[in-house]
Amino acid sequence: MTIEYITLNPSSDRMPLIGFGCAKIDPEQTAEVIYNAIKVGYRLFDGGSNYYNEKQVGDGIRMAIKDGLVERKELFVISKLWCTNHAKEHVRMACKKSLEDLGLDYVDMYLVHFPVALEHVPFDVKYPAGWTQPGETQVIRARTPMHVTWAAMEALVDEGLVRNIGMSNFNAQLMMDLLSYCRIPPALLQMEAHPYMQQEAYIKWIQKQGIAVTAYSSFGPASFAAGGLKHAKSVEPIFENPVIKEIAAKYNRAPGQVALRWSIERNVGVVPKSTSIARMKSNLDALNWKMDEEDIQAINQLDMGLRFNDPIIKGWDLPIFL
C-alpha cells in the first residue's frame, strides 16, 4: 500500500495524509489499540495531553518498536499543548511532560490545542487539567496573549524537542494575526471538517498560505452522538446519509471510506479512530481509490455548517468560533 504524504513548511518533513486519532480511547485499551494500528500500517498518531491516555499511547509505540514492527523515524507523532499551559514558563514544561509520558525524545508535531489561555493547574494537583480548576464549575481565563505562547512554541523547535508546530481550532482572524508576527510559521492547522461542516473557503485560504490542514471528526456527529451530545443526535448520521450511501454502493466501499476519501480529495489529512482491526484496515484503505468529480460535488452539497466540537456546546464560557 502506498502512503500518501503532505510536505510540511518550513521543515520539509512528510506527514501522512491519513493517521490514527488517539482521542476517546479507554486508557486501559490504548496501548493495545496503538500497537494494532501500527501493525495494520498507520504511521501518524494524533494524540494530546488532555486525551487522558498519552502515556498509554507511548506504551503502544514502545511495544511496536521493541517487537520490530516499526522504527521511531518511520512514525509521525503529534501531541498538543493544553489551554492551562499557555504561559511562557509552562509551555516547555508541558511539552517535556508529554515527551516523558510518550517515552520519546521529540514529537513530530506540537499543536496549540485551543486558542484560549486558562489559569494554570500545577501538574501535582491535577494532570491532565481538563477545562476547570479543581473545585470550580466554569473556566477561568488567563492573561496570556497568543504571541507569548507562540514564541515559547518556537523555542521548542529551536531546542529540538519538536520538529514542527501548529495549532488546532484557530479561527481565521487569529490565524491572520499569528501570521503577522510569527518567526516560525505554523506547519499545520487541525480543524473540525466533515461533509456537514466543510469550511471550504477557510481550508483553501489556509492551504494558500502554505499551511497543511488535517480534519478531525471526519465522521461528523458519530462520536459526539455516542457521547450523549444532543446537538449531534439531532441530525442524520453521515453513514446513513442517502448521498453517502449511494456513493459507497457505487464504489463498493464502506460509507466511512467515502467520508475519508472526500477529505483526502481536498488534500486534507484525516485522523480516524477505531478499536476494531477490521475498521482500522477499512479506514486506511481510503488511500487506495479515487472518487469521481461528480461524487465529490454531490457531497459538497451536504454542507450545513454544523459544528460539534465547540466549548460553548459543552457548557464552557468560551465562544471561540463566534
Can you describe this structure?
The chain has 322 residues and is of the alpha/beta class. The chain has a domain at 5-219 and 268-273: NADP-dependent oxidoreductase domain (TIM Barrel, Alpha-Beta Barrel). It is built from twelve helices and ten strands. It has helices at residues 27-40, 54-66, 88-102, 146-159, 172-179, 200-208, 222-226, 230-233, 242-251, 255-265, 277-284, 293-300; strands spanning 5-7, 14-16, 20-21, 44-46, 76-81, 109-112, 165-168, 188-192, 212-216, 269-270. The strands form two sheets. The chain has an eight-stranded parallel sheet. A two-stranded antiparallel sheet has the order 1-2. Strand 3 (20-21), helix 1 and strand 4 (44-46) form a beta-alpha-beta unit. Helix 1 (27-40) runs parallel beside helix 2, helix 3 (88-102) packs across helix 4 and helix 9 packs across helix 10. The mean pLDDT is 96.
Chain-wise SSE layout:
Blueprint: E1 5-7, E2 14-16, E3 20-21, H1 27-40, E4 44-46, H2 54-66, E5 76-81, H3 88-102, E6 109-112, H4 146-159, E7 165-168, H5 172-179, E8 188-192, H6 200-208, E9 212-216, H7 222-226, H8 230-233, H9 242-251, H10 255-265, E10 269-270, H11 277-284, H12 293-300
Parallel strand pairs: 3-4, 4-5, 5-6, 6-7, 7-8, 8-9, 9-10
Antiparallel strand pairs: 1-2
Helix pairs in contact: 1-2, 2-3, 3-4, 9-10
